[in-house]
Design goal:
37% of the residues lie in helices and 20% in strands. It has 668 residues and is of the alpha+beta class. Among the domains are: 194 residues, no CATH class; 93 residues, Maltose phosphorylase, domain 3 (Sandwich); 98 residues, no CATH class. The protein starts with a helix and ends with a helix. The structure holds zinc ion.
């Protein structure tokens, strides 16, 4: 009987691919016209350094969850998954740190993601803060990772009996992607050639075992294969290698990966045919949906095909529908065909990071100003608002309107207590240690995109306190940008050169800055201020953006308040509950319950005003700015004066406010 069944299964498995093959596939969208030039170039990692509040926050992170995650989840970090504990056919279970009792083999690559995403953030924080102790630790790690490389170039998590040969779910490309990102950062920082050689050898091994256009790395017997499709992000590595070497075979390979990903049966939103299906709604695992934006971008730039550009535009519009006022994209954890809702749709920290990096990547490749606004919205709002404002802990999942943080979303029923994502933790080991590592990556990734180069000179692409030191046309250039942006709106640049040099400095003008003032001459083009001059030893430039309070409407027709790139919230007074104490001080998990639950409605009785108070926010940067306005208390039906703060200053909060007549229509 078993034999007959087996025969039947093998027949089906032969017939299905045949049936699929017999359908004519029009895949001209993948034919290469010509690789497109990338408008802006990244600076080597480490040339841009944080200053001011960003540096202070990073130092807190390095002293907190970024610098100590290995002590908080020692069992996950001790697994030598790239080394002596590589996965073999004999390994059937591994401690990967979630609460599930049954262990599905598909999860066995998980520790590679946990370790390598954490390392990538940890390496980048150590470099940017120039912290000798942490740099030493990372130096040792890099040496160890390089020592795991086999003579054929293999760096990864599988023994010879498993590698490059899977019927479905696997972490082959994903484990490499996460590890190589950290190695790339270390190479860019140290300039050590043997690291570049090791990275190229790893990639060559992949390209030899998964030959371009002659195999199907994304073929999977099961349509849901999370590790496999995370592996599409190998395009990140290929893109960066192309930028260093100019070798177009890396781009061709990125295009091949996107094509093969698109042509297999997989539960993913980013596949070409789904994007072109006009009735399709984003519904799959959010973090994949947002990270795959970069692979689609890579495919477009590799081919120069207008069809892929069209797909990208559709995909971007779909993602916009998923964004709440703070920019947080639906991902709690499935998108589920929903449209963003400030109370009902949550976002995972991983999704915030991946989408931010997708927009940074588009900003670099297209040079389009609008992507800078998207990055700043996410970084200054969703990303800050999902961190604990004082303690070293982050929310795995968060909503814009946050009524309670006790595990389940806004107090939804949680009888079995399994939903623990909506709380603050420095690890979140009870779900998965994915979001904390990504919360350590997001700030260095923002910083790497603050300054870029183009053919004419240097570009201030994202704003905030920073310092950049680079070479333009053989001249050493150092620029300090002093500002408390996004709380303050003046930026004082000091441009220093070691010899007189003619180059162009461009400064991105945020879309909300309808008025600006400056003490220098400039022209304006496509949302950039252009300063073309011969620079002498040191030049001071003073720039001021003039924001206005704008009352916006979200996709649910509720009102919310913005000023510059900040979204404001009414804080809800809360009670703190410590739900876990770690053996390492001072780390804790925290839950929050509201003291009083009052829903506020929009009222236009009084015009909101902005207040700055450096003293009030002495220990809390985000509290230095506030907005005074009036809102309607739903219980008393009377207007009340209220003070709103940037979402980054809050734990429990209300961001969006319904109009009374819309609220009355709600089913209660
Ligand atoms: Zn996550």
């Amino acid at each position: 009987m078993k034999r007959i069944l087996l025969l039947l299964f093998s027949l089906i498995s032969i017939l299905i691919p045949l049936a699929m093959k017999s359908q004519p596939v029009n895949n001209s969208q993948y034919q290469i016209i010509a690789a497109m030039p990338q408008k802006l170039q990244w600076l080597p990692f480490g040339e841009i350094k944080p200053t001011g509040w960003i540096r202070e926050q990073m130092q807190k992170d390095l002293d907190g969850f970024v610098g100590h995650l290995d002590e908080l989840v020692p069992d996950l970090m001790a697994d030598s998954i790239y080394g002596k504990d590589r996965l073999t056919k004999l390994v059937k279970a591994k401690n990967v740190g979630n609460i599930g009792i049954e262990m599905d083999p598909q999860y066995l690559w998980w520790n590679s993601e946990t370790q390598s995403n954490w390392r990538d953030g940890y390496i980048r924080n150590s470099i940017l803060l120039d912290d000798k102790n942490h740099l030493n630790k990372n130096e040792k790690y890099v040496a160890w990772l390089l020592s795991t490389q086999d003579p054929d170039g293999y760096i990864g998590v599988y023994s010879k009996d498993l590698r490059y040969n899977f019927p479905d779910e696997n972490g082959e490309l994903w484990a490499k992607t996460t590890a190589l990102r950290g190695l790339l950062a270390w190479y860019e920082y140290t300039g050590r050639q043997e690291i570049m050689v090791a990275i190229q050898k790893t990639v060559a091994d992949v390209m030899r075992n998964y030959p371009v256009n002659a195999c199907h790395p994304f073929k999977s017997d099961k349509p849901f294969a999370g590790g496999l499709t995370h592996g599409l992000m190998f395009t990140d590595i290929l893109d960066r290698l192309y930028q260093f070497t100019g070798d177009k075979s890396y781009l061709d390979y990125a295009l091949f990966l996107y094509k093969d990903f698109s042509e297999n049966i997989l539960r993913e939103d980013g596949q070409y045919s789904k994007i072109m299906d006009t009735g399709y709604r984003l519904k799959e695992h959010g973090v994949h949906t947002y990270e795959h934006l970069r692979s689609l971008t890579a495919a477009w730039f590799a081919s120069g095909k207008p069809a892929l550009k069209k797909a990208l535009d559709i995909y971007l519009r779909r993602i916009d529908q998923c964004a709440t006022p703070s920019g947080g994209p639906i991902g709690d954890e499935w998108v589920g065909g929903r449209i963003a809702d400030a109370t009902a749709t949550g976002y995972e920290y991983c999704s915030i990071h991946e989408l931010l990096d997708g927009y940074c990547n588009l900003l670099q490749k297209t040079g389009e100003n609008r992507f800078g606004d998207k990055v700043e919205l996410l970084f200054f709002n969703a990303a800050q608002g999902a961190r604990h404002p004082e303690k070293s802990a982050i929310a795995y999942c968060k909503t814009d309107n946050s009524w309670q943080m006790t595990g389940a979303k806004n107090g939804e029923p949680n009888e079995d207590g399994k939903q623990t994502r909506f709380k603050y933790s420095p690890a979140h080991q009870d779900v998965a240690v994915c979001c904390v590592p990504n919360a350590g990556r997001i700030t260095p990734y923002y910083i790497k995109a603050m300054w870029t180069k183009d053919d004419e000179g240097l570009v201030a692409t994202l704003h905030g306190p920073s310092e950049v030191e680079t070479t333009i046309k053989n001249t050493k250039v150092r620029i300090l940008a002093e500002t408390s942006y996004p709380l303050g709106f003046t930026i004082d640049y000091r441009v220093m050169v070691n010899q007189p040099a003619a180059f162009v400095l461009k400064i991105r003008k945020p879309d909300w800055a309808k008025k600006i003032s400056a003490n220098f001459d400039y022209t304006e083009k496509e949302g950039f201020l252009i300063i073309n001059r011969t620079w002498q030893s040191a030049t001071d430039l003073h720039l001021e953006f003039h924001p206005e309070i704008v009352i916006m409407e979200d996709q649910q027709k509720a009102k919310y308040f913005t000023y510059g790139s900040l979204v404001f919230a009414k804080p809800i007074e809360s009670r703190e509950i410590v739900t876990k104490t770690f053996p390492v001080e001072p780390f804790r998990d925290f839950a929050y319950l509201p003291m009083k639950k009052i829903d506020y409605l929009y009222s236009d009785e009084k015009k909101p005003v902005i207040k700055f108070d450096a003293e009030a926010g002495k220990n809390q940067f985000w509290k230095r700015i506030s907005m005074k306005t009036t809102l309607l208390n739903e219980k008393t039906e009377k207007p009340e004066p209220v003070t709103l703060y940037p979402v980054g200053a809050t734990i429990l909060r209300q961001v969006t406010f319904m109009m009374k007549e819309d609220d009355d229509k709600k089913i209660k």
